[in-house]
Amino acid sequence: MAIRTMRYLPDPVLRQKAKRVSAIDSSIQRLIDDMVETMQQANGVGLAAPQVGVSLRVVVIRMPGEEPMAIINPKMVKRAGEREVTEGCLSVPGYAGEIKRSISVTVKGQNRQGKAIRLKTTGLMAQALEHELDHLNGILYVDHLESQDKLHKIEPEAEDGGM
C-alpha cells in the first residue's frame, strides 16, 4: 500500500468522465488499497480514483467507526428528497460550501471481489456517495454552489487550541 499524490482543482483529471473498470485485477486491488490509505491519511470520508490521478470508476468510503468500503463502477439508481449540507473536498482544500444534496440515495456497483452490491443510504453516507459519484463524472461540489457567497474559507485550527 502507498499514499498517492492528491490532485487539486484545476487539475484536468478532475474534470474528465472516468472510465468503467472492465476487469477487477491486481492493479485495481492495489489502487483500492492505496486509495484507502490516502483517504485515511487525509482524514477523508470518501475518495474517488480521479482525485489520485486515475480516471477509473472506483470510489472508497469510510463512515466514522466503520471499515472502509470500495465500490467499483458505481451507478446512481435513485435519489429522493433534498437537504442543505455543508461540504468540503480533499481536492479543494481550505474551503467548504453550502450545497443541496439528496436525503436518500440508492447506488449499485461491485465490491472489490466483483460481487454486485446495492446500497440504500441516508445521511452522511448518501452525501458521500453523491459527492464521490460526482467526481467520477467530472463534477465537483463547487459546481453545485448557488452563488459564491455559499463558499467559505476554512481557517486552520491553531495547534495551541486557539489561544
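Above is the first protein from milestone M3; the second protein from the same milestone is given next.
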Amino acid sequence: MASPESFVRILAENKARDIAAQYPDSWIIGADTIVFIDGRILGKPRSKSQARTMLRSLSGRTHQVLTGYCICCENKKRSFSDTVKTDVKFKTLTNEEINWYIHTDEPFDKAGSYAIQGLGTFLVKSINGSYTNVVGLPVCEVIEYLIREGVVGFNFHDS
C-alpha cells in the first residue's frame, strides 16, 4: 500500500493530467487533500454520523493534513508534483460543539470533516506548517515552482 504522501500526490497527478490532456498548452494545477490520524486516511464524510466520528477522533489531538499537488504543461513536457504536510492540533471538543458544527453543514465535502478557513477555525488550537495547505492548496510551494519555471514573475516600476 502507498504511503499517505504518495497516495495524495498520485490523486493530484491524476487530476492534473486529465485536465492537461484537454488543455495541452496551459499550465494546470491539480491538488487533493487528506487528513491522516492513527494510520488512517479521513476523507470527506458521507453522513452526519461519519462526520461526528471523525471529529471525535480528532478532538484534543494532533493530526496531519497532507495535500498532494501537481503542476504540469503537456506541450512543454514539464511536470512537477509533491506533497506538503501540516500538523494540526484540535482543542478538546464537547458533544455540543460537535453537534452544532455538524448542523452547520460545513463538515461535508471537507477532508476530516472540517474547514479551517470557515466556521471550523474554532476547532483548531494550533498548526505547525502551512496554513494554506490545510485550506487545500500549499500556495507558497506552488508559486515558488511557477516562479522557477518562469510562468509567473514580479514586474513593477518604481515611480
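Note on the second protein: The mean pLDDT is 95.
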